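seq:
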Amino acid sequence: MGLEDFIDDDDNSSSSSSSSTTSSGSTNTDPVGGDIDDYDMQFYGAGKSVPGNTPMEREKAMSDYTTQQLTAIKDGEIEIDSDHVKYHCPMFYTLRPNPEYSSGDHYQLKYTGEVPRPSWNNRMVSCVGTHGTRLGNVQKEAVMFALGEHDKANAMKKLKSIMGEDMNAETHVYISFFGNMMMLRDLSQANHEYREGDLINRDKIMHQVLSAKTLESRINNE
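struct:
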């Protein structure tokens, strides 16, 4: 079931705060300094790895870039004013009324809210592609994840702030998919490094590549 039933009867939605996300198409050819430092790369196995915490060292040459090298080739920025679980994932997507992002372009996530900054701040993501469809075809669970809202009233209020108050099942929506460039590269290596027979050690991947302690470490090192 898509959003057909989800959209109906939402005129009395309760209020909720909405998060604004904007993109900038300006290209900066100079590496970004400031809060990008060696720490941004340590968690993903480059440089100062700590055995037992970040033991995976990068292999091969594919995608072996530093954060500074990636920011130097960025095609734009995505400004986000609040923390969101999807930005901590290897891949996420956005819902927009217009095609704002281009397949293959590189974008830097920029947190514009109050400190402490989340661990995804300054991360580089690549647009995998943009898909256009009618809003009624989008699964409601997919909308919940994109918006970070599980409550129907709050989700619809936030969706209307993005798509417009007159949205309905026939409203056209563009879904853009993004991949965290460093995390995707390290997960590809982890697919081989943490394999035990025919199975993959999910706990090692969760702890050493997708560790929930990243945010805590970032705050403690500010």
